[in-house]
Amino acid sequence: MSVPGSGETPHGPRCGRLPDAGHGHLCPAAGHSLQRVGSKTSCFSFLSNSGEIFLTGISMPVLKDPWFMGTISDVKTNAQLLKARVDNISSLSSEIKRNRGGLVAVGIQVQMVNASLDRISSHIRRLETGLKEASAQLQVLTSSWKAVDELNAQIPELKQDLDKASALKAKVRELQSGLESISKLLQQQNDILQVVSQGWKFFRGHFYYFSQIPKTWYSAQQICISRNSHLTSVTSESEQEFLYRTAGGLPYWIGLTKAGSEGDWHWVDGTPYNKVQSEKFWIPGEPNNHGNNEHCVNLKTSALRSWNDASCDNTFLFICKRSYKPSEP
Asked: Could you give the 3-state DSSP secondary structure of residue 181?
């Protein structure tokens, strides 16, 4: 409804009339609408104030027209819908802004997750490589265990072989010892044969030389020394028997004397004189030191009791004696 005489409505600028024939007045462009009713054209405006529509016009009859009123209602409804859409758009715009910030944060998180996934993938690849290496080592160990099992299975047989080898080794040592003994015996026999070939006789580890030329007792001892020996000593009954049997009843000097020893009998090779044992080797009644000059002893008869004291200046055959010494192998 217009205010008389003012040219303005209560809620906005005045609405001008459409020009009739020949008039050049126009309605304002913003917030106004032209509508023809019957033979008249009116200018009306609608203003939004807190969601309400206010209509101003020039012609009141037009406002009472049903068509016009329906149009106004439609416009009001459309305006409300439009406002709701604008509000929704504003709300959506704010939401979009918020979501845009969230999307940026999500993008950063996605980048971080992708980086973590890359690290995890790299770690997984390293684990796969380590797993392959461990699998290869496991195969090697499995093969080694199989070899160990095979060796363990062979241990009893190897032990038997070892026992046999030990027995054979002991037998070999025994045979080797026997061979060494035989070798020593052969060497000894060879040594003995060499000495025997030079005129000596062998008896129980000693060589005996029975001379062919008579000498005084002192000369006989010197000859024996020159042959690395001494006039023989007698230490046992078996040796005494060997000597008198080999002498064959001929007189032979032996190494018993008391010269230079203050009247005590002694053997020149250093063997201790056994008076008790020697008593059974003297001829009964000997030694008698006839003429106080009989200081040396000779074998006189072919009997166990064959010792006789005589003058050292007498000449008899003589017997030299030396120990057997194995030669170096």
From this structure: helix
* Residue 235 CB burial class (10 angstroms; 0-12, 13-18, ≥19): middle
**Angle ∠(72,77,79) on CA atoms, nearest 5:** 90
Q: Which two tokens stand for residue 312?
A: 């050292």
Between the two ends of the chain, the Cα-to-Cα distance in Å is: 160
Fold adopted by 200-323: Mannose-Binding Protein A; Chain A (3.10.100)
Would you list the domain boundaries of the chain?
1-64, 92-197, 200-323
Contact 24, 33 (CB under 8 A): no
pLDDT tens-place string over residues 178-208? 999 998 888 889 999 999 999 999 999 999 9
The 10s digit of each residue's pLDDT in 41-73 is 444 444 444 444 444 454 555 556 777 777 878
Residue count of the chain: 329
CA-to-CA dists, residue 43 to 31, 36, 247, angstroms? 11, 9, 190
Pairing mode, strands 252-257 and 315-323: parallel
Q: Please give the Cα distance from 264 to 117 (Å, whole number).
A: 120
Q: How far apart are CA 285 and CA 159, in angstroms?
A: 76
* pLDDT tens readout for residues 77-102: 888 888 888 888 888 888 878 877 77
